[in-house]
Amino acid sequence: MRGRQVAPAPGSAPGRVRPVIMRRCVQIRADANGNGNYNNPNNDPANNPLANGVSPNYRVPYNTNVNAAPRVLAPFLTNPATQPASAITPAIEGNFKATGRTVVITGGSQGVGRAAALVFARKGYNVVVAAREPTRLQHVVEDCAAAAGRVGAAMAVPCDVTNERQVQALVNTVLAKFEGVDVVVNAAGVFARGSFMDTPAAEAKRLMDVNYLGPYMVAQAFMPVLFKGGLKARGPLAAFAPERPSLIFLTGFSGKVPTKYMSAFSASKAALETLASTLRTEVESQGVHVGVVQPGLVKSNFMERAAFYGKSGEEDRRSFRQLLRGLPISQTPAEVADAVYNCAASKSNEVSVGLPFAAAAQAYKFVGLNPSAVPFT
């Protein structure tokens, strides 16, 4: 890297002059306050790249016409070594894509999805959160910026995972902003409880649509992107490559163990478990990691969308709320989110959250003990 001293930009505050950083990129001048001047002789704040949240990861080729894309700059205006490798902003104009590790999280507006977004943001990822509620998504974007300590840490994309066109639009939006995707987290889901005879077929279909077919379509749509990221990891040792991209499914205790009064819900999660297991056999050699995170009982606002069926449905709902508040073995969204991140980082096939639930699942697997008899089921 070469540098030379230049005078401060016209209209900028006096102070120590910083060097111009040359990387076969557009030349940027900076004053003591870090304000940039590139074809912007009046140092207009409206065109100040820092004011627009542009980060050092936008590499502008040396022959780029910066007038055509005034909010893009190449080197950061302070010491590049002090900047995170993935500091980005989604509010970029033109065809320039952000670098750094990127995670896409469905169901990212609340609960475990929101908590996972915060974890990945703190770890330096570019975070894309997708869900059906734009207002809540925007709050998550703001929370991610605060958690990461940088503007533009996250981007919101409204999306209904049961709508194939919207899922493909999500993929297109992500690829328009980022060079690739390193992790896809399927956190979207709904819950229902009731006896088999009390649960209508329409509810069973809704559960399958959201909990199984939604993640199925998301995985299928993003798989070509993940294949591209897994190119370097292909071959006989692909399963051990640490840099391979990850596809994470949130299943649950009820997907592993038959749970009384949750036949439709358990079936949807069991289908997702089987999808993950079979998909792993297909894509592992292509350099793609498939992981499953199995929460037990999570203290989140999933009850807002939960359905309870039968004569005692509403009473059951109240009892379930009290159970969530008082049960010491339940998990917080943050605990499950940490498990999601660790699953992707360690490339684990399966991560159970909560020791009692993991033990109960093992007891059922090896001894046939059905935990439906315990109080929380």
From TrEMBL:
Biased composition (Low complexity): 32-53
Pfam families in the record: adh_short
Coiled coil regions in record: none
Gene3D superfamilies in the record: NAD(P)-binding Rossmann-like Domain (3.40.50.720)
Keywords noted in UniProt: Oxidoreductase
Organism superkingdom: Eukaryota
Residue segments, region Disordered: 32-55
GO MF entries: oxidoreductase activity
GO cellular component, one term: membrane
Family named by the database record: Belongs to the short-chain dehydrogenases/reductases (SDR) family.
Protein name: Uncharacterized protein
Origin organism lineage: Eukaryota, Viridiplantae, Chlorophyta, core chlorophytes, Chlorophyceae
